[in-house]
Every structure is written in C-alpha cells, then in structure tokens.
Design goal:
- Helix 6 links the parallel strand 10 and strand 11.
- The strands form 6 sheets. A 7-stranded mixed beta sheet has the order 16-17-18-15-14-19-20, sandwiched between helices. It has a 6-stranded mixed beta sheet with strand order 11-10-9-12-13-21, with helices on both faces.
- By secondary structure, it is an alpha/beta fold.
Length: 489
Amino acid sequence: MTGGRTADVGGVTVSLDHYVNGRRIGSADTFEDRSPLDWSLKLGDVARGDATVARDAVTAAIGAADGWAALGPAGRATILRRLADLIDEHVEPLATVECLDMAMLHESLRARVIGRGARNFRAYADLAEHHEPRRWSSNGTDNEVRRMPAGPTVVITPWNAPFMLSTWKSAPALAAGNTVVLKPAEWSPLSCSYLCDLAEEAGIPPGVLNVVQGLGGEVGAALVADPRVRRISFTGSPETGQLIGVAAARNLVPFTAELGGKGPLLVFEDADLAAAATTAARMYDDAGQVCLAGTRLLVASGVAEEFYERFRAATDAHVLGDSRDPATTISPLIHPQHLARVEGFVERSRVAGDTVVFGGHRWKDDGLWYEPTLIRPRDNDAEIVQSEVFGPVLTLQEFADEDEAAALANSTKYGLTAMVFTRDASRASRLGDALRAGTIWVNTFLVRDLTAPFGGCNASGIGREGGDYALDFYSELKTVQVREDTTYG
C-alpha cells in the first residue's frame, strides 16, 4: 500500500507511514498516537506494520547492503556527518514533535537531547573512519584484525527519549557498514519518522535505513524472528528482552539488550550533602522515566536527617506542568497505562506497610502527572525496592557502614548504574570495585563519554554499547595472518 498520510504535530508535518527502501509505505491497519500533554489530542493514526512489512524492510536492507558497505568507512562517514548537520539544523521541529509525542521537557530536548543525536552520528563516523586495526607479530606471522559489516540489523527502541536512543543504536550500525531496520515504540514513534526525512536529504541510499511502525508483538516479533537478520539491538523491559533473546538464539544472531535499572544513590557522612540532595532530586526529572536514574537513596545514618531536609527542599522546588513551559521541571507520564502501573506500585507499597513520606497521588485528575514520591520501605525485600517503577517514585534507606551500603546497593536483580557521594578517594575506588553496575558515577550524574562502554549487569542487560565496543558488536571480526617471509611482486 502506497503511503502519503501525514500529521500536523505542533506545526511540524510528520509522516505517519513506514519508510522502506526509500519510500513511504502505508498499512491497512493503524494505531492511535495521542499526546501525554493532553490525552484528548490525537496526533495521528500511525501505520500498523505486520509480518509482510517486516519482511519487505529486511529485504530492502539486504538489497542495499553491498552498496553501503562498498562506500567504506570514509564514504559512509561523509553521509553520516551530513545527517548530523541536518539534525542540528532541525533541532526545533524535532524538539516540538518529541515533546508532544512523549512529553519530555521541550527545553531539555532543544538544549541537550536532540543535539545528542547529531553527536552520535559524528562520533561513530569519526571512530569508524579513523579506526586503527590491531596489528602484531607472532609465531612467524604478521597479524591484523579487520572489521567487516555484520549484515542487516534490527534496532528496537523504547518510548522514552526515542530520537536520541534510535540514533545511539543506528549510528554505529550504519558506520560499521550495516543496513538498519528501526522499529520505534508505538507510544512515541513520530520523531523516528522525522529522522527518515533527514536521512534521505543527507543522501543515505534507499534501503540503508528503514523504519517500520507498529506493535512489538506483531511487527517487532516478525523482525527479530527473520533468519536473514544478523544483529539485533534492543532497549526495553527484561521480559521483552528475554523474548527477543530466544528469537535471536534460534537464528544464532548476536544481540545487545539494555533492560532498565534500579540504581542506588549512596550518600556517605563526608559527602557534599547539598550536591547529593540536589542530584537526588534530579531523579524526578522526566517524571522518573529514565533507566539511568538512582531511584534507591541509600544514606549514612549519621547524616540521614540533614540529607532528607535538603532533599525535600530541592524536591519542593520542582514544578509540575506542561512540558512546553520553560518553568516546568516534571512532565506527565507517557500513557494512561503507565500511570496506572506507577499508581499500582505505590498502592501495593502502602498496603504492604511501607511508609509514603510524601507524594503518592496523581497531581491532577484529568492528566497523566504523578506527584514526586518518596517511600521508606519496611525492609529491603519490599517490592518498591526490588522492582523498577519507572516513574517519579524513590525509596530512602539508611546504612551503618560501607559494607552495608555496598550490600544494599547490590541487593536487586539490576545493575545498570550507581552513584556514590563521598569525598574519600579511597572509598570511591573501593566502591568502584564492589558495586555491580555498568556505569558508576562518583559525585556526579549523567556525564556520558560516547567512547565509553555502556550497558548493564544481571537483569539490566547483555552486551555493551558505546565507542569501539558498539562498532565491534556491529561487525564481524576476522584475523588475517601472513607469514613474515612472504614476498610480493
């Protein structure tokens, strides 16, 4: 079915159709996309992909693979840098679309998040173009490790920060020479659709970047089950990650999965309490819909009262409101289903005997906002401690010493991030060893170097993204060994 349906999203025209082999393709079925800022506002009826669309997208990716690979790292880098420039030129419309589609603060999108998409493409273009293969001599041979494109790649992204995360995964895959089929989350698909228009303008050939929209259990399941796919990258829930892992295993396809977190934020007696409390209050940003957040506040008993007073003051400074308003600091949740999920966690916590210190209710009856909430759990086994809420809900626990702090920090099934506030460099180093998490921030938060590995331990995921770790994943590595006395000519 030929596409051509668009929506006006805050004055920005966005296609509601798939993008396959350089063309817009519609579907007989659609799904509604509504704005979390005003659930009565329907942004559009988005094409709902099926197994046929999934198959056609993978076929297009296969057809474009040889030509894209033949450009080499330098040729691909030129196009990807052009795409990065176009993203920078279109920050305002992209921020408008994403703000209405998933309710992230417009100011954050405009000032930081959308620009990160451009940085992703530039960073991986540079890394791929300037890669130096490992070379060494041994056993009478000269050795070199070379990369070759792995093949058609499926990228499945979540509904939070969809534009940034789609570029975070697609950029290294494209830079490595792979072609990509991107499936955005059905709750916030529109900025990824806009990305296709920019990719086409940048000169990415037809079939190299494809976007299919729809439900995970339908088109997503068909994509990951296709035996022609050679790499899969997913960000989302552990439950969906397990399903994708089974599908990947059937076809012996390597996959990476970032599956959320329940990060600890540790505050020791010698910490800068003002900085720790302010950082802790930032965990309510984006309504707590951030997998990197430190949602478990673990505070030394000797400073717990002072920390709490500072934290409460910093939390009280938050402003709930329309994400388009620069004064707003806490946005609504993404969807009524997700609001009900967050409410369910808090209500079960109350029934179980945990103490809701503040918050714990909807902010307005006619919207998707939820109050910043703090809970003191009855014990460490409480559901509110052990499960990811993915909303503006934090827990507060005290510890007596460093060993107890580390034990509490490592006591959940997750291991994505951790934060430590201390002025003691030796303690920071010890905890750097003791904590099981993919990223550990000391006296800071959300500082990201795009060349560093990123991923989680345990239920937080499999594999690492970032820098050469991502480019190696999206490549097949081969070793070429040549006898040292080999002559040419």
